[in-house]
UniProtKB/TrEMBL annotation:
Its main location: cytoplasm. The active site is at 622 (proton acceptor). This is 3-phosphoshikimate 1-carboxyvinyltransferase. HAMAP family: EPSP_synth. It is found in: Cytoplasm. Keywords: Amino-acid biosynthesis, Aromatic amino acid biosynthesis, Cytoplasm, NAD, Oxidoreductase, Transferase, Tyrosine biosynthesis.
Length: 749
């Protein structure tokens, strides 16, 4: 129950939308009195019988007297006439809103009546919801739930009016968005009006053919799906097409232009470009699907999924191939895109993060085929072939995409903006913006604290610099080196400690000369990349969860096949070995320029607490959440120092892990740059370590997967919320973990 917002509400018109809103007002007690006026006596009678209103009028003037909210819920074309009638009778502080699907013409109608100075209470609105049926009986109290309502406040609108209407729509469980009138009409012209126009047009085109009967008879699902909306009300669409004429004509022009491009590709039998266009559209549609399906990994996220793991004895066994390395997958797309020639990638990680990078390059005009079963083909456009993106580049959860692309985009001839989800929007971007500015880049972090969105002005001449990295960050190093490809002269960085060197290795694989002398890495700008084949190894960071799972489970026996064991990534192996894990690295070999091996790990002995070696911190930087679970099961204390970087990952991994461990009954003390964990293990005793409880993953995939492993040694039910982000790096996690013997139940909202 939301509580009274209005004293007297007057609906002018009481069809589907009006009567649904009246139902919300009743249920949520938003108004003391609700009245309505409509031309149909029958509607008024029905509304009275349904208990929606206390009085009904055929004259709107009677309805609006003393009302503090007037809702115009009638066809948009009637707006001006009704406003003219009711204007002299409106109370002084009345709020007036409407529900029409075009907004510019509603504002015009109001101006024709009120003059240029519109009443402060006038705030046009548009609930984006509908149903097959119309009329007062069709109304539903949940019509707006989980739908968007756009309010278009005007410069004259009072904040109080906007706030009250926002509260009203929120009480209807709608998501309220504010936008200016022009933007509203442009967005709707493209997303709603143009598709309707195209559907009417296609059906008309077919209906005019002589063989139309045959065509309709044989038309299959594609035609049915595409043309469904051509069965909508012609009068309404007639009105909308005129009401939003300017924006719709623009949208139609855009459609004609795009259609000509497509037509030409078919005429020329340009297979590569056609595949590129269709692949790009398909990917954009899939991306959109996530948002439509309310699994908004790529949106400013809501929590949509949780894991539940029950107590009970579990085994952990089997041979597994975890998905491709995230860092290498990102780079394969970036370098393939700016190379000359065609790059083939195998083992590509089809997780949301790497897909965000892939989508960004498609948006910049690169033709990319796949991914299909880990295979991607990138038709490189060369160092100067990227095109200006048409809108902001959405990086989802991915810090790697945003930091590396900051460097690359700073050197382009066009402007760009990058945005991210809730977690990425909190992450520091000045660490990369600062050195890029020293190179001459025009880059701004437009979030509150040097955080995203990142906004870049193109056409700058970059100059090579030397930069002493203040933190051990492969992302910052790589972002600078990427900008250095286009900069004049030499660009070099010195790292405080070695970090993952995938950028250096892969640039060399693309034929670019990169020098590494101790901790100093340098390259000369102005060269070019030549396409190559990239084999992405399995991600050691994903394998780490299984290593820890096996290390803490009695009798476990797990082999992780063909895992990347690049020496800048193997800190987790070294640390687990120091803790006494029964772990061997077998069949070491080279694949696609990166060392790989099978990792074999068995649960034969209790781990012991250690002071984790600081020189391993950058080499195990993503594996600490999992290692903290191992430490909790170890005998004695584990101390981590020198790892302040953990506080600025997808979440503050020190605090979030400490909170979760405490919930599960493990004593620990977070420090500025690490943590002290009081291990609960006892030599030879494999009984449970963790209790039960609800863990919040804070939009961090590695937190979710680490606490899943605690489910191998728990006495109570462990519930982990916000697990949808697991798909950013390890889409098959639950499937493989359950095959090994962990029963994770996945619940979707
Ligand atoms: C990455 C570098 C690391 C790591 C991240 C991937 C990369 O980040 O944590 O998951 O691909 O370069 P930092 O550069 O912030 O240490």
């Amino acid at each position: 129950m939301s509580g009274t917002l209005f004293n007297k509400v007057a609906f002018i018109g009481l069809g589907l939308i009006g009567s649904s809103l009246a139902r919300v007002m009743l249920q949520e007690h938003l108004a003391t009195t609700i009245v309505a006026s409509t031309r149909s006596k029958k509607t008024l009678q029905d509304a009275l019988e349904l208990g929606l209103i206390t009085e009904g009028f055929s004259d709107p003037v009677e309805a609006v007297k003393n009302a503090d909210l007037v809702v115009l819920a009638l066809p948009v074309r009637a707006t001006q006439k009704v406003l003219e009638m009711i204007q002299p009778y409106l109370s002084e502080n009345v709020i007036i809103t409407d529900v029409g699907s075009t907004k510019g013409n509603v504002v015009e109608a109001a101006k024709a009546v009120f003059g240029e100075t519109l009443p402060a209470g006038f705030v046009p609105g548009h609930p984006i919801a509908g149903a097959e049926h119309t009329g007062v009986h069709a109304g539903k109290v949940d019509l707006f739930a989980n739908h968007k309502v756009i309010l278009t406040p005007l410069p004259s609108s009072s904040p109080l009016a906007v706030s009250k209407l926002t509260q009203m729509w929120q009480a209807a469980k709608a998501e309220v968005i504010c936008m200016d009138v022009e933007k509203h009409d442009e967005v709707l012209a493209h997303t709603s009006h143009l598709p309707h126009l195209m559907a009417f047009n296609l059906v008309e085109q077919l209906a005019n053919r002589e063989d139309n009967l045959d065509i309709f008879r044989y038309a299959a699902g594609g035609f049915r799906d595409f043309s469904r909306i051509a069965a909508s009300d012609p009068q309404m669409w007639h009105d909308i097409f005129f009401a939003n004429k300017k924006a719709i004509l623009n949208a139609v022009d855009g459609f004609e232009h795009q259609l000509k491009i497509l037509r030409q590709l078919i005429e020329d039998e340009n297979s590569q470009a056609l595949m590129g266009l269709l692949g790009h559209a398909q990917a954009a549609r899939q991306h959109f699907n996530h948002m439509l399906a309310k699994k908004p990994l790529m949106e400013k996220n809501k929590v949509t999924q949780q894991f539940t793991i029950l107590p009970g004895n579990k085994t952990f066994k089997g041979k597994f191939t975890v998905p491709g390395d995230k860092s290498v997958s990102h780079r394969s797309i970036m370098f393939g895109a700016i190379a000359e020639g065609t790059t083939h990638v195998t083992g590509f990680l089809e997780g949301e993060d790497a897909l965000a990078t892939l989508q960004a390059f498609r948006t910049m005009g690169v033709s990319i085929e796949g991914p299909k079963n880990g295979e991607v083909t990138i038709h490189g456009v060369g160092m100067h072939g990227l095109k200006a993106p048409t809108g902001a580049l959405y990086m989802g959860n991915s810090g790697t995409s945003m930091r590396l692309l900051s460097g690359l985009l700073s050197a382009q001839a066009f402007d760009s903006v990058m945005t991210g989800d809730a977690s990425l929007s909190k992450r520091p971007m000045e660490r990369i913006a600062k050195p890029l500015r020293e190179m001459g880049a025009q880059i701004q972090t437009t979030g509150e604290k040097g955080t995203p969105p990142v906004s870049i002005t193109g056409e700058q001449k970059l100059q090579g610099i030397h930069y002493d990295l203040p933190m051990a960050s492969a992302q910052v190093k790589s972002g600078i080196l990427l900008a250095g490809l286009w900069a004049a002269g030499e660009t070099s960085v010195t790292e405080p400690e070695p970090t993952r060197d995938h950028t250096e290795r892969m640039l060399r694989a693309f034929g670019y000369d990169v020098k590494t002398e101790g901790n100093r890495i340098s390259l000369q700008g102005g060269g070019k990349l030549t396409a190559t084949a990239i084999q992405v190894p399995s991600d050691i960071s994903s394998a780490a969860f299984f290593m820890v799972g096996a290390a803490i489970t009695e009798g476990s026996d797990v082999v992780l096949e063909a895992v990347g064991v690049n020496p800048t990534r193997t800190g987790v192996i070294e640390i687990l070995k120091q803790m006494g894990a029964d772990l061997t690295v077998e069949n070491e070999r080279i694949a696609g320029g990166e060392p790989i091996a099978d990792i074999h790990i068995k649960g034969t002995r209790t781990l012991k607490g250690i002071h984790m070696p600081e020189d391993q911190v950058p080499l195990a930087i993503d594996e600490f959440p999992a290692l903290f679970i191992a430490a909790a099961c170890a005998e004695g204390q584990t101390i981590l120092t020198g790892a302040a970087e953990l506080r600025v990952k997808e979440s503050d991994r020190i605090q979030v892990m400490a909170d979760g461990l405490k919930i599960l009954g493990v004593e620990c003390t977070p420090t500025d740059d690490g943590i002290i964990i009081e291990g609960k293990g006892k030599a030879g005793d494999w009984s449970a370590i963790f209790g039960g409880g609800e863990i919040e993953s804070h939009h961090d995939h590695r937190i979710a997967m680490s606490f899943s492993m605690a489910g191998l040694r728990n006495t109570g039910e462990i519930v982990i919320t916000g697990t949808e982000t697991v798909a950013t790096s390890f889409p098959t996690f639950t499937q493989l973990a359950n095959q090994a013997g962990l029963s994770i139940h996945v619940n979707e909202d």
